[in-house]
Amino acid sequence: MLLVTGSIGIDTVETPFGKSRDCLGGSAIFFSLAASNFTDVRFLGVVGDDCPFDLKKLFAGRNVDLKGLEHRHGSKTFRWHGSYAGSMNEATTKLTELNVLGEAPAIFPSAYTDSEYVFLANTHPAIQLEILSKVSGCRFCAADTMNLWINNTKEQLAEMISRIDLLFVNDAEARELTGSYNLVSACEKILAMGPKTVILKKGENGVFTASNDGSFFALPAFPTREVVDPTGAGDSFAGGVMGYIAKAQSTQPEVMRNAIAYGTACASFAISDFSTAGVQKATPKLLEARVEMLRSFVSF
Ligand code: AMP
């Protein structure tokens, strides 16, 4: 069983292709939409009174358990406003209102304690740590983070990273976290913090992976003309990776490589439209077809 905790956001996003105001976002949302193409997902997150989205409807027909969705009365939902320009590889954050994310973690259902695979999607590292401590059955834990937490909560973040098996991080964040401009050195410094593997996301340049057995793996992004809004690409990528791993019940190197290919396919759908519209178009069949194309692109 795959458990995810992360943000549920009211996003405002600007890209060269338009502006989407007060739309659905959040790391746990994108992750769950992608991962549910592979396996059952246990969702853990919190919204406030102002949440305008019907999450039951969003996940209808998908195996996403919403027992862990808390509606917190008297609180406000997390809000994020970001913009993209140029290559759109990185968002510029214009506004972050933590609201519920700055309070307590979502109420943890006891039925979730035996989750074997856990993804701590981007949120406050104190929340990530607290949730991880509650999952006694965890066999493999991965996490994501971002510059806000690298800059403001460095110690809690380092503690969180020391307890996980796999870290997803983008190139700029890896440089900020480690102080190394060279990305191979940055990966090695992250591995020295605790995880067995680090997956470095490089936007349109794909991913670079390093493991503590000394192995490396790289894959380009799926080549596509349809790039409208990159928001959620990283979380959808992680959803594909973790969904595949949880389905395979294995983290052997061969499985990890295939998982990264499926994550790459999920991300290519996520960027094709604003908010969750892109990732919602992905189906197991369409993902399979993109992975086969990707396989043929990189074989020589
Ligand atoms: P991604 O583009 O995959 O890195 O994730 C984008 C999503 O992350 C957006 O929908 C935001 O709502 C959410 N987000 C942005 N900043 C934060 C933050 N500091 N903590 C948690 N989630 C965030």
Describe this structure in words.
The protein is of the alpha/beta class and 300 residues long. The protein has one domain: Ribokinase (UDP-N-acetylmuramoyl-L-alanine:D-glutamate ligase, 3-Layer(aba) Sandwich), CATH 3.40.1190. It contains ten helices and 13 strands. A nine-stranded mixed beta sheet has the order 5-4-1-8-9-10-11-12-13, sandwiched between helices. Strand 4, helix 2 and strand 5 form a beta-alpha-beta unit. Helix 1 crosses helix 8, helix 3 packs parallel to helix 5 and helix 8 packs antiparallel against helix 9. The chain is globular. 49% of the residues are buried. Bound molecules: adenosine monophosphate.
Give me the strand/helix succession: EEEHEHEEEEHEHHEHHEEEHHH
- Largest sheet: spatial strand order: 5-4-1-8-9-10-11-12-13
The stretches of 5 or more residues where confidence is low (pLDDT under 50) are none
Tally of alpha and pi helices:
10
Q: Domains counted in the coordinates: how many?
A: 1
Radius of gyration over all CA atoms, rounded: 17 Å
